[in-house]
């Protein structure tokens, strides 16, 4: 039965991608899907039943966030699972590195906690099989009957991921907690056709490939779990000779995937995305998502604090699904400075900081920018010669960053330089990061 569900969902996903000829047609279909899903889950979810009333009023519900979902976990999920027991089984899996146990037939997992607190996710067996069908349709190159070997680098494995294992499709999990050198021989023997990893790991694998320690020829490279920095994207594409595709997935769902042209499209065959705009041009927004494919842990009007930028030009693939220019990072990584001559604060988007650095010099190989306080920013650079930046190179980056802050009318901070170090372990790489929590006076 599971294999039939996967095949059915695979075919449905392929068909749906070509079905819609206009946004209006898509939106009408989404509305029907959300209402049908709500009719099924409201009787089993006291949390949503109290807040929604009837399925027709779902867009009027106040958005929720991760804290709300975790605070009301017991009454939100539809299978009677308690937060305490779900955390216990998920934490045990993290400790033992055995991710196969389930709770009442439901897969339980933990988010990585990059936003400061860890979230639980629940996926039922039918949802798991459907997810496998979707991911195969959206991420697998060629046809389903082709032979593929998928190498997947992640912090934690899951029954969700191993659901794609089939006779012609092999899946091998590579644990990010294990040092890279211990993975290289396995990769050389395995010879993956599809390589999936966080951007920082793809960068490290590309370096190993360039050094001759790694000898693989994947036909598709997919970045997951981290912001794909343009500097890393160019390097990875040059080494592997492939477009770097992206899959945007989090605790709250499978939100977007790249098309054959490398454009990141929102999976609007699974989710409705409402936009909470952050700028006057209405380009950047927080997504408020409603996932009509999930019923075990329903996600309805859930506000993410990821900053997304919408793509304004049509994608050559012709899809009516919303296209994204970039995933800039989290709201937590907005840099905040005092206004240069008024009693207020200004924000600088992570993408502005990122581009100020990488456009200042083509000799930059690696970098991080951390805002330590309202008055101080720390830059760490590694140049292509393997050395730190010269005084002249430091000054060029400093001026570029100061220009960006001045353009937003911010008081210029002290910019200090530190040695570049990359000690990730299982932590996600954040090249642009604010290191402190905003005070109340800086929150608009």
Describe this structure in words.
The protein is α/β, with parallel strands linked by helices and 444 residues long. The chain has helices at residues 2-19, 23-41, 46-52, 66-71, 73-76, 83-96, 125-139, 159-162, 181-190, 199-211, 230-240, 350-358, 391-407, and strands spanning 107-110, 120-123, 148-154, 169-175, 194-198, 220-224, 244-250, 253-258, 264-266, 271-277, 284-291, 299-303, 306-310, 323-330, 335-338, 345-348, 364-373, 376-383, 414-419, 432-434. The chain has 2 domains: 2-331, ANL, N-terminal domain (Rossmann fold); 334-442, 2-Layer Sandwich (GMP Synthetase, Chain A, domain 3), CATH 3.30.300. The protein has 13 helices and 20 strands. Strands 3, 4, 5, 6, 7, 8, 9, 10, 11, 12, 13 and 14 form a 12-stranded mixed sheet that branches. A 4-stranded mixed sheet has the order 19-18-17-20, with helices on one face. Helix 1 (2-19) crosses helix 7. The protein starts with a helix and ends in a 10-residue tail after the last strand. This is Adenylate cyclase. InterPro entries: ANL_N_sf, CapK_Type1_Caps_Biosynth, CHP02304_F390_synth-rel.
Mean pLDDT: 87
What overall geometry do the principal axes of the alpha carbons give?
A: globular
Question: What is the level 1 CATH name of the largest domain?
Answer: Alpha Beta
Low-confidence runs of at least 5 consecutive residues = none
Judged by helices, strands and strand pairing, the structural class is alpha/beta
Tell me the distance between the termini. 52 Å
Q: Please describe the biggest sheet, giving its number of strands, its sense, and whether it closes into a barrel.
A: 12 strands, mixed
Which value, in Å, is the CA radius of gyration?
Answer: 22 Å
Count every helix, treating DSSP H or I runs of 4 or more residues as helices.
13
Give the name of the CATH architecture of the largest domain. Answer: 3-Layer(aba) Sandwich
Helix amount = 25-40%
CATH-defined fold name of the largest domain: Rossmann fold
Number of strands: 20
β-sheet strand percentage: 25-35%
Number of domains: 2
CATH homologous superfamily heading of the largest domain: ANL, N-terminal domain
User: In terms of quaternary structure, what is this?
Assistant: single chain
């Amino acid at each position: 039965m599971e294999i039939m569900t996967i095949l059915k969902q695979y075919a449905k996903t392929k068909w749906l991608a070509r079905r819609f000829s206009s946004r209006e047609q898509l939106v009408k279909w989404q509305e029907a899907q959300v209402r049908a899903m709500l009719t099924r889950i409201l009787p089993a979810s006291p949390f949503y039943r109290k807040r929604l009333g009837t399925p027709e009023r779902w867009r009027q519900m106040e958005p929720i966030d991760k804290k709300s979902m975790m605070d009301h976990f017991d009454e939100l999920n539809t299978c009677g699972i308690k937060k305490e027991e779900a955390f216990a089984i998920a934490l045990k899996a993290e400790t033992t590195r055995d991710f196969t146990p389930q709770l009442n037939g439901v897969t339980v997992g933990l988010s990585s906690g990059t936003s400061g607190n860890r979230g639980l996710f629940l996926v039922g067996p039918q949802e798991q099989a459907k997810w496998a069908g979707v991911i195969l349709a959206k991420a697998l190159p060629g046809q389903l009957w082709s032979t593929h070997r998928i190498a997947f680098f992640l912090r934690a494995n899951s029954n969700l991921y191993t659901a794609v294992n089939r006779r012609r499709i092999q899946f091998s999990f590579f644990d990010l907690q294990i040092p890279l050198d211990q993975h290289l021989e396995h990769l050389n023997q395995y010879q993956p056709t599809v390589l999936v990893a966080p951007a920082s790991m793809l960068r490290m694998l590309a370096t190993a490939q360039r050094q001759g320690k790694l000898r693989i020829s994947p036909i598709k490279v997919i970045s997951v779990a981290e912001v794909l920095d343009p500097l890393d994207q160019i390097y990875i594409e040059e080494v592997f000779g492939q477009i770097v595709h992206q899959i945007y997935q989090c605790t709250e769902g499978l939100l977007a995937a790249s098309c054959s042209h490398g454009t990141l499209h929102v999976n609007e065959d699974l989710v409705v995305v409402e936009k909470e705009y952050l700028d006057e041009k209405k380009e950047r927004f927080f997504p408020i998502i409603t996932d009509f494919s999930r019923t075990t842990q329903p996600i309805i009007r859930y506000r993410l604090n990821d900053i997304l930028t919408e793509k304004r030009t049509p994608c050559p693939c012709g899809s009516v699904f919303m296209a994204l220019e970039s995933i800039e990072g989290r709201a937590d990584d907005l840099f905040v400075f005092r206004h240069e001559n008024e009693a207020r604060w200004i924000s600088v988007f992570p993408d502005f900081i990122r581009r100020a650095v990488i456009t200042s010099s083509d000799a930059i190989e690696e970098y991080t920018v951390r805002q330590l306080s309202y008055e101080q920013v720390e830059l760490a650079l590694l140049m292509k010669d393997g050395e730190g930046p010269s005084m002249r190179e430091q000054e060029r980056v400093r001026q570029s960053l100061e220009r960006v802050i001045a353009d937003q009318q911010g008081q210029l901070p002290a910019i200090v330089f530190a040695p570049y170090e990359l000690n990730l372990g299982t932590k996600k790489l954040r090249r642009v990061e604010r290191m402190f929590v905003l005070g109340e006076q800086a929150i608009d």
